[in-house]
Amino acid sequence: MSEGLEVKGVDLQRSGKAVLHGVDVTLARGRITALLGANGAGKSSLVLGIAGALPIAAGQILVDGRPISGLRPEAIRALGVAAVPEGHQVLGDLSVEDNLKVAGSHLPRAEVKPAIEVALDTFPELRARLSSRSGTMSGGQQQMLALAQAIISRPRYLLADELSFGLAPVVVGRLVPVLQKLAQQGVGVLLIEQFTHIALKIADIAYVMERGRICFHGEPGELVRNPDILHSAYLA
Amino acid sequence: MRWKTALCTLAAMSFAAIMSGGQAQAAENAKCGLSNGKAAAGDPIIIGGIVSVTGPDNFSSSGLAAAAYFKCLNANGGINGRPVKYLMQDDAWNPEQSSQLAAKLIRDQGAVALVGNMSFVDCGANQGIYEKEDIMVIAGVGVPRDCFFQKNYAPTNAGPRVSNTKAIMDLAATYPGKIKRIVCIAPNIPNVGEWSCTGAVSWIKKQGGDGKIITFDPGSLDATSLVLEAMAFKPDAVSVGTPKGMAVPIFAAAEEQGLADKLHWTGPASLYNLDFPRAIGKYWDGKVTVDMELKAADANTPDMNNWLAVMDQYGQKSDPRDTFSQAGYLAARVTAETLLKMDPAKIDRKSVTAALRSVKRFESDILCAPWYVGDGPRHNANHTGPVAQVKDGKLLPKGQCIDAQDPELDDVRAYEKTIGISN
Amino acid sequence: MIEIDSLTVLFGGVRGLNALTATLPEPVTGLVGPNGAGKTTLINVLSGFVRPASGSVRIDGENLDGIVLHKRAAFGIRRTFQNEQVVENLTAAGNVAAVLDNVPTGGRPRQQLIEAALGFVGVASKANVMGANLNAYERRLVEIARATVGRPRLVMMDEPGAGLSQEESEHLRSVIKSIHNYCGAQVLLVDHDVDLISATCVATLVLDFGSQIAYGPTAAVLADPKVRAAYLGIVEEGA
Amino acid sequence: MPDFTPFFVSGLATAATYVLSAVGIVVLYRASGVVNFSQGALGALAAFVSWSIVENGGPAPLAWCAGILVSTVLAFLYGRVLAPRLAFSDPVMRAVATLSVALILLGFMGYVWGELPRRLRLPTDTISFELIGVRITATRAVAFALAVLATVAVMVFLARSRLGLQMRALANNRDLSALLGVRVLRADGYAWIISGSLAGVSGILLADLQRLSGQTLTFAVIPAISAAVIGRFSSLPATVAGGVAIGVCEALLTPVPVVGPFRTAVPFIFAVAALLWMQRRFTFVYR
Amino acid sequence: MFTGERDVTDQTLAYSPLVDAKRVRLKRVAAVVVALAIVVVLPEILSNYWLRTFISVTALAIGSLSVSLLFAQLGMVSLAQYGLLGVGGWFALRISHGLGVPFELALLTGGVVAAAFGLVVGLPALRMRGLYLAIITLMMAGAIQVLISAFGFPDGGAGILGKSTGARIMMARPQLAATDEAYFRYAMVVLALCYGVVFLHMRGRPGRAWAMIRRSEVCALAGGVHIVAYKVWAFTLSGFLAGIAGGLLAGGVGQLDGSAFPASQSIMLFALTIVGGAYSWMGPIIAGLMLRAFPALLNDLGVDGNIATIVFGAGLLHALITAPQGIAGQLQEAAVALRKRFFGSSGAIR
After folding, report:
1. B339 in contact with E at a CB cutoff of 8 Å?
2. Residue B231 needs a FRET pair 20 to 30 A away by CA distance; which of A130, B385, D99, E210 works?
3. Which residues in C lie closer than 8 A to residue A196 (C-beta atoms)?
């Protein structure tokens, strides 16, 4: 079937409570799709659901036409869906280099090194810290590492959850172009962002989520022109 | 696939292990009771037995021998026509279970006597019910002190204390003037450990020597430390007074230190097991003596051969032919012969207890001295026996019977005088 | 009245609160700011779960340093949690009773106090229902009942408004507004829901990166472009 | 004052077998989050299988390999078939489940082989040398060398190999590792294989150094777990140090008059002290 | 103004009826009747073997109750409870032999001393929970085992640590309950009393505090619960129950064996408490049955002890995998299903 990552009518429960109700989202390759909404609206649950870390209760998720529901997270990663979870999570006990190598787990052995080189070219800051424990780095560096890990896995789709969470604006400014570049290379990017202006500036398509449902989907420009939609979603 | 292969391998090995248990010996026809060759078909007489099969050590050969004997008896006219229904139960070294089984055998099944018992926990756990129900236990093997201090419990074996004493006495007799300091090693099981060694130590002290008792936690794995601890006393002889399984690592540790030639090694009857010489290996050939409680299996005397014949014809191949098996055989024999003298219609617990208490002289060529029950407050009739030596993978008897010179036996000897057994 | 004096909290080198100084006298005070601004950290300091690196807090003139952790509830510091903490294997009444066990009753019968607290939040009919069988909103209300029973001085609520329906949200507002009149406690409310804040809070404190960026009457504070920028992430033209 | 040197030397070999077992336990726990109480029972099974083959005239090296293979395969099967079904249970339940495996093995060994006086003999038993007044058989030296070798090999494996890296990643954060593409079940399987084979080696050595008994070898897991606790179930060097300390202290206390009888409590005291030291900082438990 | 508020919410929130008071009373009466019937009838119909087995079952049910108290109320795992049982039994025997006091006093002494040990075992629980707590308590159980076997179980010698030189002396049973039948009834009454103590705690202030702690420690602290005190008290009470169980066991057999309290038994006690169903009142009784009656049944059927161990291990594994709520949970589900079938879909009896 068609290219793209499609989420169709997905319901999802977390510890017995329904957090997603019939969510439909489509990621196109080469585009940046923004997902906005207040805290607790279910954005992170959606990311974890796509990545296979949370089982979905109903609906379907298709990657380039192939259903992935029920696959283990590592299998979904191998299909080209890389999730960068919220809160710059890295393997804190491991060195930066090891973190990068782990991200290449599903690549053929020979391809890991070149992939790491590509990621390091994107974030030269990490090169100097290859041997340091990633848990000791600043949040911004950890977020770069998390993004680098995603790049190494050569994703077709990248799910970036709250990239700017708790980071200084300078760092955010450093990360955003990377996403744009990835999109130019053909990666379908899902961007969840609390700094709505950043998201709206770079996104091609925008979704707004409220209490586990998609309440808006369309051009980002529409949201900029019509901030009430956003305000009602955030401030309701 | 790998799983299947593993299963097959395991199954094959299990089979091999079971089959390699014992070796058959040709023997003449077993004689039991009336020896009339007629199967007994009357109202069965219930006799129970409590042994420890599962647990830290398989402690059941006495019960197995009793079972074989009763089977033989039932094939040979039983008790004047009445068969014996022998119920052997496994207490798994657990006093609770032992007490449940005693209640079951005595109260539920109505056993008239218990025969061939062999357990570390039975004597202690069931003393109350034995006295209360006034049932006589003709045990095969008593180990803890409790087994030798009960009115209703009469073991045919000598017990570890007597056995340890004899083992040391034998060494002292073999090497006159050389055995001055001894160490006795025992597990710290209550009523077994220290008590089992005290006889030997008090005997050597009486001879002007010195002795040390080392008790150890059976759960401990470090046998070398134990051996080194014994060596720190600079002994001339060591008695390894443990169940057979625990003795193996101790001898292994001693072998490692090359101690067989530096001092003399011995052990009580608990080591008298045909597997034992093989388990400790060639190194110990001719360097260990083991007390026997009863005479050697290959003595080629009539009753001894009969025991072997009973085991071959009515027991399992895997049943051990060890000193405990002999004890169980004797216990069954003395019981059967006592019952045979009674009116078959009037066999109940009370009459059986009385009849067994009146056994004042029971003789067998397996025993060194006549055995008795009697109505004394405690029973330790067997305190005379031979000693064997480990040789060519076998246990060969050394010769004379030795009578244990343990002051604890003074009351027993005094009682024996009153019934005319000892002089 | 809450008096916060140069309060600093460190999490392994990262500043959760950065020399925060504020005086909060109003009966219902809102506490807003973007994620990671230090709102929950402030509540945790007041509860005693987080030890400040420096600085102090006084409530009704009493320095909190002198009150050991398990005595703070009895002193009157109460809270609800971001992730609800209703005990599943106690009834709603049992949940309230569990707190009432440890706080002053003022001599009134316990049963009456429990009923009053559940009645106040509006779940009197659920008194004998197990916590596990309450729905999400009822649980939230039971948590508020727990926080308002037995003479509280300060009731802190961490995002009570997240994920509520329209009716539930309206009911919650009325409950929050009436807490001060009901039991005399001051309310400190953390929420992302700006409507809830503006509907209930007399004054609002805005935090960003652990520091105060604005304090004042709610309407005025929320209209502040600085606040809008920090909180909504919307950079207004010319700002 | 007693002479402690011989006790020290003798304790080292026992310590070595603790270390072998403990390293297996730690590797498994790090990768899969399971504390394996059946480590000792698996070793006992390996020893029994080896013994049976030798008794029936099989060549000794084949016997050892078969024994180790059996324990490895069983561990792997448990890890692949049964352990995943408990993946969402509490870690305590997962540990208790391995205890039931130990029970099954214990019953099986009791049924097939029984408790008889046995010892597994290795050719190294006949070679011995003297070290500070204590004779040491080559088996002890081999045990010690194997312990060192296994520890080093496992450490190198974890540090250098791809699979080892994945295991370290799992130990660090299981969920995130899965998101990063680590094949969790595969890494788990290998961890079970490593731990099963180490169990086999240590079981065979213990059956030679001590005795071949299902019960004794099964419960030899306790000092190994104590050593693993000292290593916080994560640090291999600390685990080795713990195992050595436990083995040596137990031996050293032997000749001390009053405390001697209590020396088997050494593993427990070490483990309790280590746990208390590790947890000395007060933390709140959120849920 | 608040009455108005309440009216609004009572309409918006679904109405749920209070628990039917009459039904509860009826249930309670029924339970008491059934319990009395069991106490009166069961000892009469059991054979002597099963009588003694059930004495052990009763004692072990109390032991399991002590585990489930910690696990279900506080979410704490203690793998030391069987060791505490040994401590209770040791002291009960010691006091009974050494001072010749009445059985009840010996039993209580055993309980109190085990409670003190339980307190010590529980101290690490102030800092840790989960696996580490489980292992540290297991290690303590191991240490207790070493202590017990190094001191040796009391056997009736003179003085407090006396070793007997002659026959072993049995622990005197209560005068009222010298026979096995009477002692079984006595044990069941003790079990009922222990249940009573636990229920009183659960219903009262400690139960609420424990529930808060189990929910989470921050929740408990926010509610002003003195966490340290209530945790320590739970471990102490649980130790007391284990001690009582040990004393009861000692009275049943008349003596105990030092080797009968290994750490592995503590794990079994915990495992079977979970398998029985720690969250249900039936759980400990089921655990007691599984621990003692099930092996006794296999033994009675002549099953080889080793096979019994295999069956036991396989059963435990199976239960851990398939019954997270334990057998009690499964029974309750089955009961609900049955009710639905016979009394319609409401599943309630009116």
Report:
1. no
2. B385
3. 232-234
Nearest Cα neighbor of A23 from A4, A51, A47 is A47
Contacts of C40 in chain A (CB under 8 A): none
- Say how far apart CA B34 and CA B57 lie, in whole Å: 36
Which chains pack against A, by 3+ Cβ pairs within 8 A? C, D
Reduce the DSSP state of residue E322 to 3 states and report it: helix
Secondary structure (3-state) at E289: helix
Which class for A26: exposed (0-12), middle (13-18), buried (19 or more C-beta within 10 A)?
A: middle
Tell if the CB–CB gap between A38 and C193 is shorter than 8 Å: yes
CA atoms within 13 A on the CB side of C218: 21
Q: How far is E15 from chain D (nearest CA, A)?
A: 30
Neighbours of chain C (3+ CB pairs under 8 A): A, E
Contact criterion met (CB below 8 Å) for D179 and A51: yes
Q: CA-CA distance, A177 to A171, in Å (whole number)?
A: 11
> Three-state SS for B399?
coil
| Alpha carbon of D216: minimum distance to chain E alpha carbons (Å) | 13
Q: Where are the domains of chain B?
A: 2-159+296-359, 160-292+386-413
What residues form DSSP beta bridges with B89? B50
Spatial distance between the Cα atoms of A177 and A155, rounded to a whole number of angstroms = 17
Maximum CA extent, chain B: 73
Alpha helices in B42-121 (DSSP H): 61-75, 95-103
B186-195, D63-72, E88-97: least confident range: B186-195
Residues of chain B neighbouring E145 (CB-CB closer than 8 A): 219
Write out chain A residues lying below 8 Å of D179, CB-based: 51, 53, 73, 77, 83, 85
Inter-chain Cβ pairs, chain D and chain E, closer than 8 A: 136
Q: What's the pLDDT tens digit per position in D236-278? A: 899 999 999 988 888 888 777 777 778 888 888 888 888 778 7
> Would the CB atoms of C123 and E13 count as touching at under 8 Å?
yes
Check B228 against D10: CB less than 8 A apart: yes
| CATH code of domain B2-159+296-359 | 3.40.50.2300
Burial class (CB in 10 A: 0-12, 13-18, 19+), C71: middle
E262 touches chain D (CB under 8 A): yes
E257 vs B contacts (CB less than 8 Å): 94-95, 121, 124-125, 190
How far apart are alpha carbons B362 and B371 in whole angstroms? 5
D and E touch with 3+ CB pairs <8 Å, answer: yes
Binary contact (A74, D168; C-beta < 8 A)? no
Chains C and A in direct contact, meaning 3 or more beta-carbon pairs closer than 8 angstroms: yes
Tell me the chain E residues in contact with residue B106 when contact means C-beta distances shorter than 8 Å: 48
CA distance D281 to chain B (A): 34
**Given the structure tokens 């998390």, which residue do they identify?**
A146
- Interface predicted TM-score of the whole assembly (ipTM), two decimals: 0.83
Task: Compute the distance between CA of residue B385 and CA of residue B380 in angstroms, rounded to an integer.
Answer: 13
What is the C-alpha to C-alpha distance for residues C51 and E203, in angstroms, rounded to an integer?
34
Residue B230 CB partners (closer than 8 Å, separation 6+)? B183, B185, B212, B214, B238
Q: What is the pLDDT of residues E174-232, one digit of tens each?
A: 888 888 899 999 999 999 999 999 999 998 999 999 999 988 888 898 899 999 999 99
Q: What is residue A142's DSSP assignment?
A: H
Answer yes or no: same fold for B2-159+296-359 and B160-292+386-413. Answer: yes
Domain B160-292+386-413: what homologous superfamily? Response regulator (3.40.50.2300)
Convert the pLDDT of each residue in A162-171 to its tens digit: 877 666 666 7
Do A33 and A214 contact (CB within 8 A), yes or no? no
Longest Cα–Cα distance of chain D, Å, equals: 61
